[in-house]
Description:
Blueprint: E1 20-24, H1 40-53, E2 57-60, E3 64-65, E4 77-81, H2 88-100, E5 104-109, H3 119-127, E6 139-140, E7 163-165, E8 171-173, H4 188-203, E9 208-211, H5 237-241, H6 254-266, E10 273-276, H7 283-287, E11 297-298, H8 301-305, H9 310-327, E12 332-334, H10 343-346, H11 350-366, E13 370-374, H12 395-400, H13 443-446, H14 453-466, H15 468-471, E14 478-479, E15 486-493, E16 496-503, E17 509-512, E18 516-520, E19 530-533, E20 537-544
Parallel strand pairs: 1-2, 1-13, 2-5, 5-9, 9-10, 10-11, 12-13
Antiparallel strand pairs: 3-4, 6-8, 7-8, 14-15, 15-16, 16-20, 17-19, 18-20
Helix pairs in contact: 1-2, 4-6, 11-14
Amino acid sequence: MTATHPTPSATDLDWWRSAVVYQVYVRSFADSNADGVGDLQGIRERLPYLRDLGVDALWLTPFYTSPMVDGGYDVADYRDVDPMFGNLTDFDNMITDAHALGLRIIVDLVPNHTSDAHVWFQAALAAGPGSPERERYLFADGRGATGEEPPNDWESIFGGPAWTRVADGQWYLHLFDPAQPDLNWRHPEVRAEFEDILRFWLDRGVDGFRIDVAHGMIKQEGLPDVGFSTMTTGQRQVELLGKGRLPYFDQDEVHDIYRSWRPILDSYPGGRMAVAEAWAETPQRLARYIGPDELHQAFSFDFLDATWSADSFRKVVDTALAESTIVGAPTTWVLSNHDKKRHVTRYGDGEVGLRRARAATLLMLALPGCAYIYQGEELGLPEVLDLPDELRQDPSFLRTGESRDGCRVPIPWSGQLAPYGFGPAGSELSWLPAPATWAALSVAAQTGVPDSTLELYRTALRIRRGHPALALGDGGITWRETAPGVLAFSRAAGDVELTCVVNLSGAPTRISGYGTPLVASAPLTGEGDGHLLPIDAAVWFERPLVG
Ligand code: GLC
């Protein structure tokens, strides 16, 4: 069934409070020119699919000019499109069509670091120590008699030291790959440049920004040693936070930057927003990124990290909702993204993982706030675990042995043979190979199949959009008494109540009293007001409120 969308209107300023945002990993979504890499024109051609899926907005991962050392998170020119993805005209056409279909567009902003191919960094290398060009980055002399040791003990999130030495003997800081030098955000030119970049994309009509590494831009004065190893497995920034405040994360002055960006966003019509990819030691510190004078949202990664248990989910939901109430902003739920193992696989892989993933989706979509869906989760895609090492492109793979390529495999659209319609008819190229089992998971294979994951998402999104209790971005939930291991909460609007029940107990559970089932992640058995909910399943009920 086709969802009806209003065209984005200048009056709907708070659209993001209850929006469902679909994350497009541009390289892997749809390839229009048969080069094996997704592109902007490919997205444009698939916009009707996204409209029919029932999402409100798209977040596009970086498509800017880039050497692609870190999948485009190494930006060489913030105001242009990499030829691999198209050009600015393709972008303009894509956003025009998206808006005409009622879909908003959020783009990724990468302010913590540039690419080493950026003109500023090239100028800094050429100009030498002590030059104004070096001031825009974090260059420093080394320790030791001849400066042969890095300036401090910081380690890169991708493994190895966070410092690289250049030919003249100085070192520069990179919290990620050596090809991603960190900018000096205490420098006025850096601040002015990014304010201008914001305006450049706002003028082109973008509805919002996803701020990459939003907690990392300010480093503690003096760049002090951490004092312990921060080596993690892969991109597990969360492991670092358990070790105490780091001199390069979540420094108080980072908030000055967002306070200067907010008036820029607010000066454009139509409700332009920003969402932080921020990691902080506590939910309380994370909440400081959002509010009327800073950013609109921050991903609630604790929800993504929750383990498959009723206690774990209930705890993170309660904490996130409490924090969002204090700051007066909605919570931002997410189960998967381009950096994390897909949730089907995290929850046990195979049939069990898929069952749980479908249930978790109904849980997420019933909660108040905004939800982010990562491309392919609506198809129930698992992580691809057996990619040959030589095809893996994640820069952290060589240093840590962990790679994020398995969640970035191109989307299967149709057909029996890989890459399953990722490119135009006859194209056999895709930058990562899709598994042989994915023919059955393609969009075409699942469309119209009532119990498919794609149809579950479509149904749930349609109900969410039209249901008065779910369409509200704000408001609380009321937990209901249940058997151990079962979660149930209700949301009411006017004279109707919606209840979401999730069975994490490991045994089928009998439920009654919540009304009529609207959608379930697995078939319910039972008649009338008594139902049996299978293990690892979720259901939404609706009930009129009387009196
Ligand atoms: C963010 C991105 C990730 C990237 C990193 C460095 O965490 O989500 O993909 O590697 O920043 O830019």
